[in-house]
Amino acid sequence: MNMLNITFNKFGFVTYNSKRNNNFGILNNNGMEKRKRSVILAGLCILSMGGGILGVLIGVLSIIDVDMIRIFARIPGYASIYSLTVDAHFLYPYFKVLLYGVSFLGALKMFQLRKSGYFIYTVAQLILLIIPYLMWHQIPVVVFFTDLPDMIFTIAFIGAYTLYLSQMKSASDQEKSGTEK
Fold it and tell me: What pTM was estimated for this model as a whole?
């Protein structure tokens, strides 16, 4: 049963407290408190989700018609994406859509302060760094220098997320505290 307590604090403001699911972010009667998300962590997650959506969009456009991705040539790091996608294995855009979607899911879970999102995001991003070596028809040195901006951003974001890993909870911690999965 969802009970709602309405109290007045010393300044005369009304305070709402839901005993069942802590909808209002106030300390619950069961001792559960809502976890706070760092502003930097939230910003990182939003940027990662934006990158995931952009990656899915570019992948879908390259599946439909490779010429459609020329509009992304003005974005730094995407200047050579057209020439590389044209020469790549035909499954490359499908893998990109899948992995960027998984990366978006991981970033969303981290935004919800779930530790599993960190591992999902990290694995997806590391695979995204490996598949160009397997699917681009270029020598490894060309792949390395072409993919270097992605590698730098991936390592920087994974490192930044690692700093905030202590703020996230694992599934077993969430079961113990009673927070939603």
Answer: 0.72
